[in-house]
Write a structure and sequence with these properties.
single chain, about 160 residues, alpha+beta, YbaK protein, five-stranded mixed sheet, three-stranded antiparallel sheet, about 25% helix, about 30% strand
């Protein structure tokens, strides 16, 4: 588990569970391997809004509606960020395995409304072998994301 995340959760006396799994890279693969709903598995999608990096957090079974994100953040141009653009921000994480705690990296965080339907969420722990499970309420209290409807369930 990412040292920065562990220290932050422990400092705030947050109850969480570590789930170890075989190496998997996509959030849908991880959800299937760990028998966790794709709705409850939170994935991070990095977005550039007017050239500024923002973090979106949504269910693994969803995709980002870029037009909706553009409206929410009031940007004139919004696009998916490439791994090479955001990887330097998350130097302590394996590529693509960053946890949804953008506040630990001075990033604005937007959480998709469907995540709040679940008492618990599960997300990458900074690597491709571990997940963290904690209450959505604790996530919301610690990260203070802007919660909005900006994701669409994949068919």
């Amino acid at each position: 588990m990412l040292k920065r995340l562990k220290e932050y959760l422990d400092q705030h006396t947050i109850r969480y569970q570590i789930i170890t799994h075989s190496v998997a890279y996509t959030s849908q693969e991880i959800a299937a391997a760990t028998h966790i709903s794709g709705q409850q598995m939170a994935k991070v999608v990095m977005i550039k809004a007017d050239g500024k990096m923002i973090m979106t957090v949504l269910p693994a079974s969803h995709v980002v509606d870029l037009r909706r994100i553009q409206e929410i953040c009031g940007a004139s141009k919004v696009e998916l960020a490439s791994e090479s653009e955001y990887a330097p921000i998350f130097e302590d994480c394996e590529p693509g395995a960053m946890p949804p705690f953008g506040n630990l990296y001075n990033l604005k965080v937007y959480a998709s409304t469907p995540l709040s339907d679940y008492e618990q969420i599960v997300f990458n722990a900074g690597n491709h072998r571990e997940l963290v499970k904690l209450s959505y309420k604790d996530f919301d209290n610690l990260v203070k994301p802007e919660t909005a409807a900006f994701s669409i369930k994949e068919s």
